[in-house]
Every structure is written in structure tokens, then in C-alpha cells.
Amino acid sequence: MRARVFVSFKSTVLDPQGQTICNALHGLGYQAIGNVRQGKFFDISVADGTSLEQARKDLEVIAHEVLANPVIEDYQVEILD
Amino acid sequence: MRARVFVSFKSTVLDPQGQTICNALHGLGYQAIGNVRQGKFFDISVADGTSLEQARKDLEVIAHEVLANPVIEDYQVEILD
């Protein structure tokens, strides 16, 4: 089973890296770009014997405790297959 | 229009950060985790007047020229809405 965990800054948190990319794109002539926010994702493979519920439960805990900083970041767990 | 560009190491490139996370998860008792690969994503908003073809074309160029290093990274452009 494969899963993908998305981690990104909460929308209320400034994202200077995304802002820098956005400014660079405007400088390169891409005026249609309105906003850029950067995030991370983690492609995680889970052993085949694991049940979907167990995998989802574990991944929620892993995302909350290990992959994201819940004070400033949101996360989202997606089971791919 | 919103788009998401995914950038990750090519599968042939080592991902030490993902490997470290994987080892940490095993240390925490998550033995079912087989592999972790980390990547980046960019949520990009495009001005509403832009056509879908133009947006996709621009974003492919932006991903290739600005967001990713095509020597070691793969990228994927997804139009969200």
C-alpha cells in the first residue's frame, strides 16, 4: 500500500520561500501567476499485510507527531493504492 | 485557476532525508513502514483570464526551468480547478 502525506504551512503563516518564487516568476515575465505556496510531501510505502484502517490511523499519528509541526503546519493523509 | 506542481528526486537518486525519516519511524515502532521518499509541492494560483492550455504550457516551463532541477528531479503539473 502506498500513501502520500502532504505538509504545508497553515494559510495564516507567512511563506517567504513561496513569496520569493512568486516574485522571481513575475520578474521572468509570468504576470499571470498570482500566488505561490510551497509545501512538502512524503511518499510512504506500507507493508501489504496492514489493514486500511490501521494504515490510516498510523499515518495520521506519524503525520501529526513526526512529519508536521501542528503549531504552524497543516497535514493531509492520502492513501494512493 | 489553481495548480499544483510536484517535484521529487528521480527514483534513481538517493533521498537521505526520506531514509532518515524511515529509520526514525522504525525506531518508534512503525515496522510496517517500508520506504519514505520526500518531495516538494508548489500551490500556484493563476489569473482567471488565462486559458487552460496557456496555463499548462507556462506551468510546464516554470516547473522545468525554475522549480525543479531536471538533472536529478522529476516534476508533475496538476491543474486543480
SSE order and pairing:
Two copies of one chain form a homodimer.
Chain A: E1 2-9, H1 16-27, E2 33-46, H2 52-67, E3 73-79
Antiparallel strand pairs in A: 1-2, 1-3
Domain count of chain A: 1
Strand order of the largest sheet of chain A: 2-1-3
Count the E strands of chain A. 3
Kindly name the structural category of chain A. alpha+beta
The CATH architecture of chain A: 2-Layer Sandwich
In the CATH scheme, what's the topology name of chain A?
Mth169, Chain: A
The CATH homologous superfamily of chain A is named: Phosphoribosylformylglycinamidine synthase subunit PurS
Number of helices of chain A: 2
Walk me through the structure.
2 copies of one chain form a homodimer. By secondary structure, chain A is of the alpha+beta class. Chain A has one domain: Phosphoribosylformylglycinamidine synthase subunit PurS (Mth169, Chain: A), CATH 3.30.1280. Chain A has 2 helices and 3 strands; from the N terminus they run βαβαβ. Chain A has helices at residues 16-27, 52-67; strands at 2-9, 33-46, 73-79. A 3-stranded antiparallel beta sheet of chain A has the order 2-1-3. Chain A is elongated. The first copy, chain A, starts with a strand and ends with a strand. The interface between A and B is medium-sized, with 33 and 33 residues.
